[in-house]
Design goal:
With 383 residues, the protein is of the alpha/beta class. It contains 16 helices and eight strands. 49% of the residues are buried. The chain binds iron/sulfur cluster (2 copies). The site of one iron/sulfur cluster has 15 residues, from helix 2 and helix 3.
């Protein structure tokens, strides 16, 4: 295939993206042994790193768009090569040239929707808070205990709206004085940044930060690990700091403080899937499990590839917006693992994971075999 990336520009872009460590790669190939792609098809991040070292990347191909930023290979690399940063910088070059393979074009639609409406799902900004219409919510104001940052999928996606409703219901029952931003909330921008659209990320981040300041926000509760990750690790680039807590951490805190009690039995066998941006990227492994263990009657079992070895659902790095052939979906493998563990319910805490697992459940015709739930839906059932 023709190589269109100019030598110097690729190398400069990688350096600018903070991915300079790619030069330390000594081609051991350990990264490829842990990459989930190699469970479904051949893919080599080692090869991408090698080609990038010489500025010889095929930016028009599919491969630079494959990485889900799952975080497995950086953990395994003995030379500290930052594979994710290198990959994102290559996507920046491809985006600058407007070179996109067919499977990636839907991510362009998501980008256009983010620019015009502040969400990737082509929902109107004006209807962002429609899910909460009948729930009498307050807009966040200074002095409130916390902001509930709902996120795009929970605001617009029909399946995920149920999770937003469950979350709000629990917070209300615990007497938390919280508000939402409604139509003023914009996408956190985490995933579009990973597709190489840096300017779109920065615009979204600045918009959110301004809204947080205008509304006197000090503490933010999030449902998505992607919002969590960018608020904690990326928004400080804009010189702001506010407290961020994932809902699974916050609910455990409410139980410990005696503000929330779980009294109803949930007599199901449940297995917990660690989302990449909760576990590997942010080290949150225990709180969701501790929370599930507080549910009366619930039997928590572990499946293969748990905790730091968690098998990615396939949705990170903007892959949630790209097309993945049916026989190449990691989420199908995860459902199989959950089934093998004997679980009645596959529980997780990320809108991308739920979206992918629900789709796999449909494709595999597992409707009667296993349920897919967000952790808040389990807690709501236990109230
Ligand atoms: S694990 Fe690190 S050093 Fe080894 S091939 Fe992969 S990127 Fe290179
Ligand atoms: S971050 Fe994950 S998906 Fe991306 S190359 Fe590494 S192991 Fe593969």
């Amino acid at each position: 295939m023709e190589t269109v990336a100019p030598f110097k520009e690729v190398i400069d872009e990688i350096k600018a993206a903070g991915g300079e460590a790619f030069r330390f790669c000594f081609q051991c190939g350990l990264c490829d042994t842990v990459c989930p792609w190699n469970r479904v098809r051949q893919f080599s991040i080692r090869k991408i790193i090698r080609e990038a070292t010489f500025g010889l990347t095929e930016i028009e191909g599919e491969d630079i768009w494959r990485c889900t930023t799952c975080g497995r290979c950086p953990e395994r690399c003995p030379r500290g090569v930052q594979q994710i940063e290198v990959g994102v910088s290559l996507r920046r070059v491809a985006s600058a040239y407007e070179v996109f393979p067919a499977s990636v074009r839907s991510a362009r639609t998501a980008r256009a929707s983010l620019i015009s409406e502040g969400n990737p799902l082509q929902g109107q900004r004006a209807s962002r808070a429609d899910w909460a219409k009948d729930l009498s919510f307050k807009t966040h104001q200074e002095g409130m205990e916390a902001l509930y940052f709902v996120g795009c999928y929970l605001s617009y996606d029909p399946r995920m709206k149920k999770v937003a409703t469950a979350t709000a219901d629990i917070l209300k029952k615990a007497g938390v004085d919280f508000g939402i931003l409604g139509t003023k909330e914009s996408c956190c921008g985490e995933s579009i940044r990973k597709t190489g659209s840096e300017a779109v990320f920065k615009d979204l981040a600045r918009e959110n930060i301004k809204t947080f300041i205008d509304h006197g926000v000090r503490k933010v509760i999030v449902s998505s690990p992607h919002c969590y990750h960018t608020f904690v690790n990326e928004y400080p680039e804009f010189m702001v700091n506010f407290e961020v807590v994932h809902i699974s951490q916050y609910l455990l805190e409410l139980i410990h403080d005696g503000r929330l009690s779980l009294s109803r039995e949930v007599g199901q066998k449940v297995t917990y899937h660690d989302p990449c941006y909760m576990g590997r990227h942010n080290g949150i492994y225990d709180e969701p499990r501790d929370l599930l263990n507080k549910v009366p009657g619930l039997d928590l079992v572990e499946m293969a590839d748990a905790r730091k070895d968690s098998l990615c659902c396939g949705g990170g790095g903007g892959r949630i917006w790209m097309d993945t052939p049916k026989d190449e979906r990691f989420s199908d493998l995860r459902l199989e693992q959950a089934k093998t563990a004997g679980a009645d319910v596959l529980v997780t805490a990320c809108p991308y994971c739920i979206t992918n697992f629900e789709e796999s459940r449909l494709n595999l015709e597992y409707d009667d075999i296993i349920e897919v739930k967000d952790i808040t839906e389990i807690i709501q059932a236990a109230l």
